[in-house]
Amino acid sequence: MNIAHSSNTPLNASAGGPRYSPAQIALHWVIGLAIIVMLGIGLYMVGLPKGLDFKSSLINFHKSLGMTVFLLVLVRIVVRLVAGRPPLPPMPAWQRAAAIMTQGLLYVAMIVMPLTGYLGSTFNKLATRFWGIPLPMWGWDDPGLRRIFFTVHTFAAWILIALIMLHVAGALKHQLIDRDRLMERMLP
């Protein structure tokens, strides 16, 4: 018996067990924080009146950060394929399914969001800039296509917000209720 074990802290096979790689941990937190910033900027800027220089600057920043997040997500997917992931701790089948589904949908949303934002921007008369560098204009001015891509972009944003809330709620449940130290696998 472990003498240091208190009755308030359950023993757990995952405690001190496998963790995500340092690259996965860094990418998780950088991407997570960037997405929260992106969502905040996106929700804020849509309410600004058209024609403001500040709004144009904010839109360009939003686009550049979105494309950066997209590239980081692609790197994260490759790192996950190479490094794998630690196994989930024992839990009921429905929780395991919910965790796997939420994580999968988060990856889908992290791909759909920047793609639809970029595609919506390509069907415009204005060039898209990536941190000030103009990208080639391969699209044409098409309000119908632009509206479709930006509608999907907006819908995906609300889904992403819900998925982030589920992800955080699940992590907090594991940390505060289950006390299985699951979050330690993703902490620096």
TrEMBL record:
Q: Which domain of life is it from?
A: Bacteria
Q: Which organism is it from?
A: Caballeronia udeis
| Membrane-crossing segments per the record | 26-45, 65-83, 104-128, 148-172
Which residue intervals define the domain Cytochrome b561 bacterial/Ni-hydrogenase in the entry?
19-188
So which cofactors does this thing need?
heme b
Which InterPro entries is this protein grouped with?
Answer: Cyt_b561_bac/Ni-Hgenase, Cytochrome_b561_oxidase, Di-haem_cyt_TM
Q: Does the keyword Transmembrane apply?
A: yes
What PANTHER family is this protein classified in? CYTOCHROME B561, CYTOCHROME B561 BACTERIAL_NI-HYDROGENASE DOMAIN-CONTAINING PROTEIN
Family statement drawn from the similarity comment of this UniProt entry: Belongs to the cytochrome b561 family.
Q: Does the keyword Electron transport apply?
A: yes
Its keywords, alphabetically, are: Cell membrane, Electron transport, Heme, Iron, Membrane, Metal-binding, Transmembrane, Transmembrane helix, Transport
- The protein in question is named Cytochrome b561
UniProt membrane topology term: Multi-pass membrane protein
